[in-house]
Design a protein that fits this description.
Layout: H1 9-17, H2 19-27, H3 36-54, H4 73-94, E1 105-112, E2 117-126, E3 132-137, H5 147-162, E4 169-174, E5 179-184, H6 191-203
Parallel strand pairs: 3-4
Antiparallel strand pairs: 1-2, 2-3, 4-5
Length: 222
């Protein structure tokens, strides 16, 4: 049944944006609109995922194959990401703490059967005090979105209930602008209640249209 489907971060955020859009994409199975920003974000995530298997820090030096920079958004994000990692490397090297350079996990797929959720966590880093950071990479320019706290708490629940790790800090890194947003994951967002509410709407076939969203029920598609 539809109410027993596994929910992902994207499905949850789609429902919160517009229940009818969620209905179109996940109940009716209508094709999703793939924007240029979505395609760029996928390519940037793919690069970051491969980065950790290619980067070399042997003999206390940071080396990585040269990346051609043509000024496009993807290349700007990649360049900024590399510069950010080089700075991290030099800082940790100065402290003789290079064992903290590599993430504990990167692009790890997790599935929780108790809440019927699944997702791919971008990265989990260990701080010098051995606390853990949940890291999300965002290629979009909207750095003030209220959705980040919901997304990070979704992954916090997923990590804690599958890996048994205690996550208290969330970091959103914007490689396009090279900015960082830090979020304390203190339980103020009740992700379980949000998910249960979505399932209740699915069960009752209740998918109202948000007039501010361009789903197929809006005049944008007429």
């Amino acid at each position: 049944m539809s109410e027993d489907m596994y929910l992902t971060k994207i499905k949850i955020m789609t429902f919160l944006e517009c229940p009818h859009k969620f209905y179109e994409e996940n109940i009716l199975g209508l094709p999703k609109v793939v924007t240029q920003a979505m395609a760029e974000g996928k390519n940037i995530h793919s690069f970051i995922e491969n980065f950790w298997s290619i980067v070399n820090i042997e003999n206390g030096e940071f080396s990585f194959p040269k990346v051609s920079i043509d000024g496009g958004k993807e290349q700007i994000c990649i360049k900024n990401f590399l510069n950010f990692q080089k700075k991290r490397f030099e800082y940790l090297k100065s402290l003789d703490k290079l064992e903290y350079f590599f993430p504990l996990y990167s692009e790890i797929k997790l599935k929780s059967d108790d809440l019927l959720i699944l997702g791919v966590v971008d990265q989990i880093d260990k701080n010098l005090d051995d606390t853990l950071n949940l890291v999300e990479f965002k290629s979009n320019k909207n750095e003030n979105s209220a959705s980040f706290e919901i997304e990070l708490n979704f992954y916090k629940y997923l990590v804690e209930n599958t890996l048994g790790l205690n996550i208290i800090n969330g970091i959103v890194f914007f490689p396009f602008t090279n900015n960082i947003k830090r979020i304390t994951l203190d339980g103020k967002v009740d992700i379980v209640s949000i998910i249960n509410d979505i399932r209740e709407h699915i069960k009752n076939n209740d998918f109202k249209h948000n007039k501010n969203c361009n789903c197929r029920k809006s005049s944008h598609y007429r």
